[in-house]
Amino acid sequence: MTTSKIDAETDALVALFTRHGGDGYFGERVTQAEHALQSAALAEDEGAAPALVVAALLHDVGHLIHTGGEDIADRGIDARHEAIGATYLARLFGPAVVEPVRLHVPAKRYLCAIDKGYWQDLSPASKQSLELQGGVFSPDEAEAFANLPQAQDAVRLRRWDDRAKVMGLETRPIESYRELIAAVMASHPAN
Known about the structure:
The protein is mostly helical. The chain contains eleven helices and no strands. It has a single domain (3-187), classed as Hypothetical protein af1432 (Orthogonal Bundle), CATH 1.10.3210.10. The chain has helices at residues 3-20, 32-45, 50-58, 61-65, 81-89, 95-114, 116-121, 124-132, 139-146, 151-163, 178-187. Helix 3 crosses helix 6.
């Protein structure tokens, strides 16, 4: 991908947050942008690789793209935002970004299966979406998930996702991630 194409695609990602980042985050007390920026900050704080920081930032980009509305879960619909987001991002990034995004919903189902206390700590909105997303994994499903190449990164991302719902928390602006997004796009290109 050329530098000008990387710049244009980075601009398009930032523009999604500019247009839709102020939307509510599905039953939580933060916006889409606040959630994404908190997720990325948590990844950075834990020393995650640059590609995983970008995955944390963009893990819910599918919510910014789909047109189902903020109340989609209340209407009993699973928007499959993880699949929408992964498909969108696969044009731009390689598996180090795309797979944790694609797997962050199955990671919730996995964590509920292996950690009995995990479900109790989920927010009401996250518990509601869990049911729409297929519920807790069976032991066989959990084992199959654990054997996927990007499973551990998806679990890390999921844990940041769960914690990134703090109302009023100060974070860096989305624009401050432009350089990182572009660098990861260049170093982890789409297949």
